């Protein structure tokens, strides 16, 4: 999991602004995931990607968008349409999707929107 | 879709005692069940996992059991130590997209 970086560690934004969270990996993993973590609710899947230029919605995709232009990168944009964007966001990768394969997590970005 | 329930939400044990965390899942097609440990402010890290063709797996002080008929699986930690204090998450995967559905977590506190 040392091969997954998320930046920044802390992010502060005003309500109504879009914000993009970075996730980069050098593990050569095909699959990448975005989760949101709120206190007492565990991790919930936002989006995932199995291959470059392809991604699918998870359980809570509304108000979020992603892109996968490179294998190493899977940025997440939190749009102004997301009603409660303040949360801890975790990016994860896995070797592939035909697994099951272990998912490795990045260090996370804590987003605060006021 | 898959639904995973986890109990208890908090668990306090004395150092040296055993701790057991239980999860149930809804989708009988689920075939992979990992357990993650998350320390405060840190990333979740895999501590043990089990596949549906296995009933039990052990790794030193940690073990996981799976009952496919009842659709539940459990994490067992023996001889608990203060460094075991953390939040533990169970998860289940049906394999499609390698997606995981997580339980809501158990805050384990090991007291001296």
Work out the strand percent of chain B: over 45%
Order of helices and strands of chain B: EEEEEEEEEEE
Poorly predicted tracts of residues of chain A: none
What is the gyration radius of chain B calculated from CA atoms? 13 Å
Instruction: Label the structural class of chain B.
Output: mainly beta
Cα Rg of chain A: 13 Å
Uncertain parts of chain B: none
Note down, in words, how this protein is organized.
Chain A is mostly beta strands. Chain A contains no helices and 11 strands. In chain A, 38% of the residues are buried. The mean pLDDT of chain A is 93. Chain B has no helices and 11 strands. Chain B starts with a strand and ends with a strand. Chain A binds chain B through residues 1, 31, 33, 35, 40-45, 48, 50, 56, 58-59, 90, 94, 96-108, and chain B through 1, 6, 9, 31-32, 34, 36, 42-46, 49, 51, 89, 91, 93, 95-105.
Features:
heterodimer; A: 114 residues; mainly beta; seven-stranded mixed sheet; four-stranded antiparallel sheet; B: 112 residues; five-stranded antiparallel sheet
Short description:
Helix content of chain A is 0%, strand content 49%.
How would the blueprint of this fold be written?
The complex is a heterodimer of chains A (114) and B (112).
Chain A: E1 4-7, E2 10-13, E3 19-25, E4 31-37, E5 43-51, E6 54-57, E7 64-66, E8 76-78, E9 87-94, E10 104-105, E11 109-113
Chain B: E1 4-7, E2 10-14, E3 19-25, E4 32-38, E5 45-51, E6 56-59, E7 62-67, E8 72-77, E9 86-92, E10 101-102, E11 106-111
């Amino acid at each position: 999991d040392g091969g997954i970086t998320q930046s920044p560690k802390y992010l502060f934004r005003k309500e109504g602004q879009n914000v993009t969270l970075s996730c980069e990996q050098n593990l050569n993993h095909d699959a990448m995931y975005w989760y949101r973590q709120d206190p007492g609710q565990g991790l919930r899947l936002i989006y995932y990607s199995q291959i470059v230029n392809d991604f699918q919605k998870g359980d809570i995709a509304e108000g979020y968008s992603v892109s996968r232009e490179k294998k190493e990168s899977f940025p997440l944009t939190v749009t102004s349409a997301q009603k409660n964007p303040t949360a801890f966001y975790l990016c994860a990768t896995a070797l592939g999707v035909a697994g099951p394969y272990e998912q490795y997590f990045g260090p996370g970005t804590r987003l605060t929107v006021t | 879709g898959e639904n995973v329930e986890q109990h208890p939400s908090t668990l306090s044990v004395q150092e040296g005692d055993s701790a057991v965390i239980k999860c149930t899942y809804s989708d009988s097609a689920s075939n992979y069940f990992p357990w993650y440990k998350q320390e405060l402010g840190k990333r979740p890290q895999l501590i043990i996992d089990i596949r549906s063709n296995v009933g039990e797996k052990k790794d030193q002080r940690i073990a996981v059991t799976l009952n496919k008929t009842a659709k539940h699986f459990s994490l067992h930690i023996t001889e608990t130590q203060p460094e075991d204090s953390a939040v533990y998450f169970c998860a289940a995967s049906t394999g499609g997209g390698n997606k995981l559905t997580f339980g809501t977590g158990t805050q384990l506190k090991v007291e001296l």
